[in-house]
Amino acid sequence: MVVDKVLEHIHTGHNFLLSGGAGSGKTYALVKVLEKVIEENPHIGIACITYTNTAVDQITARISHDNLRVSTIHDFLWDNMQQFQNELQSTLLERIRDDEDKNFVLPDDVVVTDNLFSPLKYGIQYKEVLRLQEGIISHDEVILLANLMFEKYSKLCDIIKDKYRFIFVDEYQDTQIEVINILLRHASQSKKKNIIGFFGDSMQAIYDKRVGDLNDYLSAGTVHEVKLEQNRRNPQAVIELANKLRTDNIIQHPSDQIDAPNMDTKTGAVKPGTATFLYSSSSSLDLVRNFLRWDFSDALKTKELNLTHNLIADKANFPTLMEIYDKDKILDYRKRVKDFLRDNGIERDIYAGKTFGEVLDDLQTKFPKNKKLLPTAGMQEYINEHSDLFEAAKSYDFLEFFKIYIDKDHLIDDKKQTPEVEAKKGSSRDALIKHLFKIQNIISLYESRNFSQFLKITDFKIAKASDKKVLHDHIQKILNTESGKTIGEVIDLAHTLRLCLKGDALRRFVEKNRYIYDRVSQVPYAEFLSLYRYLEGQTPFSTQHKTKGDEFDNVLVVMDNGKWSQYNFDKLFSELGNPGSSPTNDAGILERTRKIFYVCCTRSRENLAIFFNSPSQSVLAGAQKLFMSDRIFNLDAAQ
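User: That's the sequence. What structure does it adopt?
Assistant: Structure tokens below.
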């Protein structure tokens, strides 16, 4: 049994890696190993670390113990370094003074002294947003500083080994290289003993700047591998397809356990399932859906996977919100102006009290022929199409407009955000989107008659029986405005009716991001409702990255790269059809694309369909290698 093999390595004092493909039961094995280790070592500290809060919740729901610490990697590292403030401040100053390190850059007008952080009441802090001048670091900086500190200060390695005799890393392939260096390289400075265990699958390493695999450590004998080759999720057709995609030495086979989800309890055999390749000269997915005849309205059983949120935004009916958070070329132009000031040694503070428009006028007067001050062609086209928006932008205070930071993750972070999760580091939604989610959660809880949870999050107070009628009327006013009112009007109405008051977080957001708030507040609330349904998993759409770890009866994968040059499905299928035909410099793209395609295919519990628009002959040759010939369909001919 796999767990027994892992325990053999533990008893021998070996670091180990449990490798298992999709649907192999890695989390189940992790929990079983934890149970045995706790049983054998009930008084010894054990840490289990993983990349997301969601994964933490999944593990803690299955196992808990007084001496078991389950946390995100970031929280784990921070907990073991935050008390060493002198070392933290020294290391942070060292990185700030390193001109080649672009991760720790202070504004040009800040004088860096040895006691720069000494006045801070709470020392260096770890929060969601980087504010380096205030001594506040965020997720990326925690990893980088931890790597430097564990390398430089061996006492940290002693302490972490004293605290945790065992450290288990879930989904290790998604872990930053620096974390692996801390656990396997820097920690070796300490003569104390502990065991590091890794659980994961190198074929599911789909995020950038992650370790991906432990091949170097396996070759060196620093880590010993145990393979988990069963598959409990996928039907036979998908298992066979997935095995053709794997590039390591793991070949999966159906589980021999009759209670496995992919086993037919009547016949005792694995479910056959289907794996189908569809193509057409038309990009219309209606053609695909009509052919498949799946119930795409059932979001729990059927998913359509696209590579990016941008490819989904139009389909799921939130294009304007996505455009605001991810495609605003006016903000891109603002950054171009910021860079111009920096490159020409112009202090921003001389423009205190000036609007963005006044700053542009002044700079264009002083530098009339400098092309670096002008918008790029793409920016100018956007400005021409949004002239009213650009005029509004020019009216904002320049220094405040200068500070706005926006990222599409602030909008589309699609982990469900309970109040508890929102309070944790790692929640990417901004205060405006969180407030809108709170409003909609209040409405949804009321509609579903979950009054106990409703009363916990609403600001409306029920003191007497008549208040219930008032509450009902207030909810109806919100519901009746969904199709016509803007987001700003609904926020104001929910505040006026005391269903959801505007808190300090929202006020701070508006103060610092007035341009963003003004844009979002004019969008119809119905569009936010579409975003809400998408992020809460109530639509058939999902990105290919975010579906990792999920599973559905029916999965449709749309082979469209969008404008993401890091992936190329055409090249992947062409290479599969004619191995060795791709240029050497395409290797990274091919590997990245193969892995995301593997993850997508292995989400299916019953039926998998791949759709390719206008494939070349080389792509079709690749499809012939992967799919049974009777499961390849030209939809143009099928009409």
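The CA atoms of residues 377 and 383 lie 10 Å apart.
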